Amino acid sequence: MLVVGIDKGTSVTKTAVFDENGTQVVSASRRVRQFHDGPGWHEEDPEDTWARTAETVAECMAALGPRAADVVGVGVTGHMGGAWFVDAAGRSVRRAIAWPDTRANDVVARLENGPDLDEFLRITENGALPGMTVPLLAHLGPDLVDEVHVVLNAKDFVGLRLTGRMASEPSDAAFVPSDIDRGTYSARVLEILGARAWSGKFPELIPSGAVLGEVTPDAAGLTGLPVGTPVVAGLGDAPAAMVGCGAVTPGSAVSILGTSWLSANVVPDPHGGARGIGWMYPMPNGAFAHFVAQQAGSSTFDWWLRHLAPDVSGTRDFAALEAEVLAVPEAATALTFLPYFSAAGTQAPFKAPNLRGTLLGLEDATSRADVFRAVYEGLAYSMADCYSAFGRTAETIRLTGGGAASAIWPGVLSNIMGVPVELLAADEGAALGVAVLAGVAAGVWPTLEAAEKSVVRVVRRIEPDAELHRAHQHQFARFTTAQRMTRAFYDDPRGTA
What we know:
seven-stranded mixed β-sheet, 21 strands, about 35% helix, Carb_kinase_FGGY, kinase, FGGY_N, carbohydrate metabolism
């Protein structure tokens, strides 16, 4: 038996097919065509995106050949937020808006400087972003309301084209945002953000693992999927990645070491963490995943590569560089690095838009390896700092993303956090996560928990070193002291602390 995971990404749409052991059998991808016709605009042609998505599925089915008949279920995930406008017949009303769109900055600014922010955060447990659905609707105003039957999210539009049904599920709804306790859209949130005219323009909500519908003849003709194949409602890409990493029970955590570093902790209820820092998503088993993002990540590391190790920057062969760094003792550097290279400062574990990157402690004897040791550890301290936003301690952290392949970061992160770090065999994340949901619905696995045991394989577990953990606590204290000092410096309009 085979299950299909479709991941409608921001830049790339990918389809992957998995067997009952979670092994990827075949995959295909296409670039997403984007339109930037105004300042901060990020739009897509929905029909072009659907055509490209269908091509990825068709390529996979063709590669499977006769095995395509073994497909028993399809799961769909996609980037969260944004807005996909359709009429009562399911036709697109206008271009879709994707989550990186910033034209609703004015709406978010009014919220964050207004009297209703605390109420908004209590209802949603989600920090506001301009690319969320409701801020975008508030910015657009009521002109389109009469033409629009429902406003969907990206994966929901793909689900509509596959099955003909307009529906969403709780994780995507949470980032609209909605009422986190009731699991429903919130009229009060619409009112607070100035989008009351859009009330009633959201799709029905069904459980994340429930069957949305079956592949229609039209969709089968485009994709090669067997007619009648069940399609589940799926998940937004962030919680889908948690399922794909086997992190679904409270106390488990995942950090995705990509361009930005995204960390998530699974909690039993949505309250208790740092309110307004990050985003809270319902999981399919009744738990919640609290996500925070540090803009500092591989993009920050790449800055140092370009300037200090251009040979590595060009080849992406890190072995020699990491050997240099490993020759410098861990948790002993005289340098302190604050990795806030984003023009937006930092959003977690606190909001400091003016904070910038800083390297302290340079002297004549400082070597390239010393600087990179500080960069590796500074990025890890920033991640540990972000984990403080959860208000709960992770029992184990699973790593995924390109940075998880480092010879340095997994061990350093374990020693800083004082908890085991696990590396996984699969790196498909979100596509695997929704394929798992499809397999559970189709009876490939009896439960989500059973599926996780079958498909998620830990290939390496790193236990923390107690002595290095103590040494890192001293270094982390230096990190937070430097953080406070530079935060005051950059917040001072004169440029002095």
